[in-house]
Specification:
- The protein is an alpha/beta fold.
- Helices cover about 45% and strands about 20% of the residues.
- Helix 1 crosses helix 9 and helix 6 crosses helix 8.
- The longest helix has 22 residues.
- It is globular and about 55 Å long.
- The two termini are about 35 Å apart.
- The protein binds 1,4,5,6-tetrahydronicotinamide adenine dinucleotide (TXD).
- 1,4,5,6-tetrahydronicotinamide adenine dinucleotide (TXD) binds next to helix 1 and helix 4.
Length: about 300
C-alpha cells in the first residue's frame, strides 16, 4: 500500500509518522520545501528500528514519486494568520490546492484523495472539481476530528469512558458545525437526558472553539496530533476496508436535501472510498442548523 502526503508541515509529517509506524503503508512526503520533506522523512525513518517496522518513507518535491498511490492526502496550505481575512486565506489556499490537485490528477489518477487544507469544505469541493475524480474518491477530514473533540469533552465532564460516548458532528468545519444531539448517547442514553442544557451548551461551544483554544496556547502553529489521528483513522478505514461510518466532507447530490456543495455527513468508508452516504433522521432544529451551515459553505465556494 502507498500513501502520499502533500505538505510536510505539522499535520502532514504527523500523518506520515502514524501511517508508517502503524505498518499501514509506505509513505511519500512531498513539499515545495524539498529539504523539509527530506529532513522530516529521514527523522521518521531513523525511528523505524526502535519502533520495529519495515515501512519506507521518502521526502521529495517531485510529483513523479506519487505515482500509483492508493491514497493522496492534501495538507499543503497556509493557516490563517493574524490580520488575514477569510477571503485572503481562501484565495491563497485555493491557488495551492488547485496546483496540488492538478498534479494528483496527472500523477495518481487512480488514487483516493483526502483533503485536510482549510477552509475544509470549499477546498474539498475544489479538489473534487479540479481532479474530476468520482465524488466517492475525494473527501475531506473534519467531522472525525470535531466528533472526537466532542466525545473527549463529554467524557471529561461526565467522568465516563470515551468509548461509551457516541455522536456525530455534521455540517461545515467551522463555527456552524452541527452536533447531532438526537444521535448523541452516553452508555446508550440520550445526552439530553443525562446532561443539563447549560453544561451541554458550554461543551458544544468549547468543541467549536477547540481549534482556536489550542492555537492560542501554542502561540505559533495549530493542532496537529488530533487532526493527524483523524486522517489516520480515515486511511485505515480505506486500506483495511472497514466499512465503518465516519463523518467526512463530500459533495452532495440531493442527500440531506443539499446539492452541489461539499459538507460533512456520515459515510460508510471502505476500499472504494465513500461506499454509501448514511441519511440519519434529524430533528427540526438540526435540519435548520445544517441548512445554515450549507449556506456558509456556499458563500465560500462562490468566492472560488
Ligand atoms: O480539521 C482540519 N481539516 C484541519 C485543517 C486541522 C488542522 C489543520 N488544518 C489545515 O491544514 C490548516 O489550516 C492548513 O490549511 C493545513 C495544514 O496545516 P499544518 O498545521 O500542517 O500547516 P503547516 O505546518 O504550515 O504546513 C503546511 C505545509 C508547509 O510545509 C508548506 O511548505 C507546504 O504546506 N506547502 C506546499 N506543499 C506543496 N505544494 C505547495 N504548493 C505548497 N504550499 C505550501
Amino acid at each position: 500500500m502507498k500513501v502520499s502526503i502533500i505538505g510536510a508541515g505539522a499535520v502532514g509529517a504527523t500523518v506520515a509518522m502514524r501511517v508508517v509506524e502503524s505498518g499501514l503503508a509506505d509513505v511519500v512526503l512531498l513539499d515545495v520545501l524539498n529539504n523539509v520533506a527530506c529532513g522530516k522523512s529521514l527523522d521518521i525513518l531513523d525511528a523505524a528500528p526502535i519502533i520495529g517496522h519495515e515501512k519506507s518513507i521518502i521526502g521529495t518535491d517531485d510529483y513523479n514519486q506519487i505515482k500509483s498511490s492508493d491514497i493522496v492526502v492534501i495538507t499543503a496550505g497556509l493557516a490563517r494568520k493574524p490580520g488575514m481575512t477569510r477571503e485572503e486565506l481562501i484565495a491563497k489556499n485555493a491557488g495551492i490546492v488547485r496546483e496540488v490537485s492538478g498534479n494528483i490528477k496527472i500523477h495518481a489518477p487512480s488514487s483516493i484523495v483526502i483533503v485536510v487544507t482549510n477552509p475544509l469544505d470549499s477546498m474539498t469541493y475544489l479538489t473534487y472539481k479540479t481532479t474530476g475524480f468520482k465524488r466517492q474518491k475525494v473527501f475531506g477530514m473534519a467531522g472525525v476530528l470535531d466528533g472526537s473533540r466532542f466525545v473527549q469533552l463529554i467524557s471529561e465532564e461526565m467522568k465516563v469512558k470515551r468509548s461509551s460516548v457516541e455522536t456525530y458532528i455534521l455540517g461545515s468545519h467551522g463555527d456552524s458545525m452541527v452536533p447531532l444531539l438526537s444521535h448523541t448517547r452516553v452508555s446508550g442514553k440520550p445526552i439530553e437526558k443525562v446532561l443539563s442544557k447549560d453544561r451541554l451548551e458550554a461543551i458544544i461551544k468549547r468543541t467549536c472553539d477547540r481549534g482556536m483554544e489550542i492555537v492560542s496556547l501554542l502561540g505559533t502553529g495549530s493542532a496537529c496530533y488530533s487532526p493527524s489521528a483523524a486522517v489516520y483513522r480515515m486511511i485505515d478505514a480505506i486500506l483495511n476496508d472497514t466499512k465503518n461510518v465516519h463523518v467526512v466532507s463530500t459533495c452532495l447530490n440531493g442527500e440531506y436535501g443539499l446539492k452541489g456543495i461539499s459538507i460533512g455527513v456520515p459515510c460508510v468508508i471502505g476500499r472504494n472510498g465513500i461506499e454509501d452516504i448514511v441519511e440519519l433522521k434529524l430533528s427540526k432544529d438540526e435540519v435548520n442548523a445544517l441548512s445554515k451551515s450549507a449556506e456558509a459553505i456556499k458563500r465560500s465556494i462562490e468566492l472560488l
